[in-house]
Amino acid sequence: MASKNVALAGATGNIGAAILKAFLDSKDFTVTVLVRSDSVAKATLPENINMREVDYSKPTTLVNALKGQDAVVSALNHSYLDQQRALLDAAVSAGVERFIPSEYGSDTLNPNSASLPVFAHKKSAQKYLEELEAQDKISYTIIINGPFLDFGLNHGFLGLDLRKKQVTYIDGGITMFSTTTLATVGKAVLGVLKHPQDTKNRAVYVQDAALTMKDLFRLGKQALGAEGWTEIDGGKTEEIEQKSYEMLGSGQKNMGVFLGFLTSAIFREGYGGHFQKPDNDLLGIEELKESNIVDLIKGIAATQAHE
User: Fold this and answer.
1) What is the pTM of this model?
2) Which residues make Cβ contacts (< 8 Å) with residue 55, sequence separation at least 6?
3) What SS3 string covers 261-285?
4) Segment 70-85, tens digit of pLDDT
5) Which letter does DSSP use for residue 79 in this model?
6) Going from the N-terminus, what domains does the chain have, and what CATH number goes with each?
């Protein structure tokens, strides 16, 4: 039986907002948004939404907010992942059936990616979920979708800088990787909750497209014209990853360090960045055509031009 009453944590973040929009657009679910009592971002939420204030340091507030919920969807960003265990414990206490942890990224079930320090919180959450499931206290689903295509294009994270008309190749730009838009991740969450038995206690994989950096460059030229682009060699993932380990070993914990690890998770061969058997059909997801990606690039570039 599909879950109907769903609590969403982290609804004001990039992925949380996309998941919330999917819930509100579907009309198939009654969604309750969990917000911290001291959050200023809650003012950005849609009017008339069902909202419960919680304090992650006070378990009773979480348990009370989760009573009567069939599922909990965590979209807590990396800054708050240490609070996810409190949310999970409260879900168990409240009798919630399904928990979707905050993953929404690289294949953390791949041994090579799983060993990267950037995923330590996620691996800890997976281990705890497996322990609780083994005790029949709750079930779970992990959603793995690769890097966000729209977010990555907007911020130049996938090698293609639309503002500068510049492409930076990693490992020569020929490695295939799976990528998904924020909106499609939202749809995938709904797909999981509509198929609880088929998605129970496992990871599901979703992608809008499987591309190489050279594919993105080709589509970028179709969208913005072939003239004026610069191509740069961004180095090898093995060397970038090693540099991140060296920086981490010296005590550095800035975003550049962790982006180096993410680069390997996405682009390095053997790290699971290209999904071999996506669950798109099960989740009701249709992959994007190249023409859709060209239109996406045009739209992002047009928005950037007016910023």
Assistant:
1) 0.96
2) 36, 37, 61, 62
3) HHHHHHHCCCCCCCCCCCCHHHHCC
4) 999 999 998 888 899 9
5) G
6) 5-145+180-205 (3.40.50.720), 149-178+209-305 (3.90.25)
